[in-house]
């Protein structure tokens, strides 16, 4: 029995499923989750000292590689000053200023402690600002686990949303309308009927929670136009895409200006941080300036702020890394497609900046939830376990995105492709 297996057994005594976040449990890929003890650059090391090339990066934050020294040093320096005061600190302003400099659509922002808090608060703000209750989201997009966002489509687009988790009141879920990602006509039809009741659209501008699906041409602009027409708030959930697909996020990459943006992951440099921000006119409705309540004991805590500031400072000093990340993602995905083809395995892929996805399917492209869920998840699970044996750590689900880091070398990527060539032959 490996050390990870021993630790997993022990973890399950007092932690539900042995994990503090469900996807970590390996339930969709089989086998026992790996327990890691150290990360360095492109690598993770497990409790048996096995080394893995890591394409998860703690689900996005480690874009500069694990234990990136400038971030580590910033956190160490902050530690010696104390862990937090529950009062304003200068570093909160410095990080807010840096985010607003990088993402000019954000005129003001509020720090929170997770992406879930960021989207939950942004939704409440949009509702409070517009006085409307309904929200629009897209099937396959994940925005954290707040009640209004754990909702799937009802029987038809306009029918009331239904909870996709026990514990979410139907009376709340009915205010969430879930539409098909990349189907701008359906959005237009929905708004034509009840647009004046819709507070906001929240969208992942690149969908990273049903694998990695890019916005169709015109989709994001269409959402912008529709929100303008009906005075609804357009929220870009850039928790994953922010500072990853481009320094300025998807909004910079695609040239669309949302009204509000939610952030997480990279903004915390690996420590717990989320944020929501956007137009000053809207943000001024947030307490204590305005009536929409939102709060948090550890919001803006100095450790996380120093980590995030060091991360964003490093990224903004190296804008060329985004072209490099895109090239790495392209080389990897095209290499995987080539060796899959040679092995007779149906595979297609996507990538944008430091995000990529591989789909076990004979479909030439995957653009929405129904196409993503028709892929061969069993084959992915076998591929996953094979790659783990080869020392390659991918996200443990067919519906997650791959994350490329600056620290991942050309040699690492070639090793990954070679490993995949071997594993594809066994599928
Ligand atoms: P957190 O509450 O997990 O910090 O952020 C929620 C969230 C919001 N918006 C987007 C676009 C996200 O991708 C996430 C969280 N991402 C997942 C990865 N698919 C986190 C991994 C997990 O749940 O353990």
Q: Look at the helices and sheets and give the structural class.
A: alpha/beta
Secondary structure tally, helices: 14
**Which H/E pattern describes the elements?**
HEEEHHEHEEEHEHEHEHEEHHHEEHHEEH
Strand content: 15-25%
How many E strands? Answer: 16
- Please report the first level of CATH classification, the CATH class of the largest domain: Alpha Beta
Q: Percent range for helical residues?
A: 25-40%
Main sheet specs: 7 strands, mixed
Strand adjacency order, main sheet: 4-12-11-10-9-5-8
CATH H-level homologous superfamily name of the largest domain:
Type I PLP-dependent aspartate aminotransferase-like (Major domain)
What does this structure look like?
With about 425 residues, this protein is an alpha/beta fold. About 35% of the residues lie in helices and about 15% in strands. The protein contains 14 helices and 16 strands. Helix 8 (about 250-255) links the parallel strand 10 (about 235) and strand 11. It starts with a helix and ends with a helix. The mean pLDDT is about 95. The protein binds ligand KE4. Ligand KE4 binds near residues 114, 115, 208 and 239. Ligand KE4 binds near residues 23, 209 and 240.
């Amino acid at each position: 029995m490996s050390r990870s297996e021993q630790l997993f057994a022990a973890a399950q005594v007092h932690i539900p499923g042995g994990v503090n976040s469900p996807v970590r449990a390996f339930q969709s890929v089989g086998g026992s989750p790996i327990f890691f003890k150290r990360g360095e650059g492109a690598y993770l090391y497990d409790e048996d000292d096995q080394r893995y090339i890591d394409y998860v990066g703690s689900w996005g934050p480690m874009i500069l590689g694990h234990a990136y020294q400038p971030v580590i040093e910033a956190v160490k320096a902050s530690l010696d000053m104390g862990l937090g005061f529950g009062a304003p600190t200068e570093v909160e302003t410095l990080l807010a200023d840096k985010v607003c400099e990088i993402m000019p659509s954000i005129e003001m922002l509020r720090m929170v402690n997770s992406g879930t808090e960021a989207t939950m608060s942004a939704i409440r703000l949009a509702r409070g600002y517009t006085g409307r209750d309904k929200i629009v989201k897209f099937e396959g997009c994940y925005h954290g686990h707040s009640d209004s966002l754990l909702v799937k489509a009802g029987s038809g687009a306009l029918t009331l949303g239904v909870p996709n988790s026990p514990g979410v009141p139907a009376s709340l879920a009915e205010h969430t309308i879930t539409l098909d990602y990349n189907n701008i006509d359906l959005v237009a039809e929905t708004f034509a009927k009840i647009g004046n009741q819709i507070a906001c659209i929240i969208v992942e501008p690149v969908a990273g929670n049903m694998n990695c699906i890019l916005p169709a041409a015109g989709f994001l602009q269409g959402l912008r136009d529709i929100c303008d027409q009906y005075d609804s708030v357009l929220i870009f959930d850039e928790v994953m895409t922010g500072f990853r697909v481009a320094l300025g996020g998807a909004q910079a990459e695609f040239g669309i200006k949302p009204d509000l943006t939610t952030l997480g992951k990279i903004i915390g440099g690996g420590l717990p941080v989320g944020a929501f921000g956007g137009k000053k006119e809207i943000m001024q409705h947030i307490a204590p300036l305005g009536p929409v309540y939102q709060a948090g004991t550890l919001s803006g805590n100095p450790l996380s702020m120093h980590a995030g500031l060091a991360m964003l400072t490093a990224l903004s000093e190296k804008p060329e890394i985004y072209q490099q990340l895109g090239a790495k993602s392209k080389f990897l995905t095209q290499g995987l497609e080539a060796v899959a083809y040679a092995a007779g395995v149906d595979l297609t892929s996507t990538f944008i900046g430091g995000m990529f996805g591989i789909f076990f399917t004979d479909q030439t492209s995957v653009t929405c939830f129904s196409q993503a869920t028709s892929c061969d998840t069993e084959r992915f699970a076998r591929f996953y376990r094979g790659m783990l044996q080869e020392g390659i750590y991918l996200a443990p689900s067919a519906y997650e995105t791959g994350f490329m880091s600056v620290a991942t070398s050309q040699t690492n990527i070639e090793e990954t492709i070679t490993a995949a060539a071997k594993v594809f032959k066994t599928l």
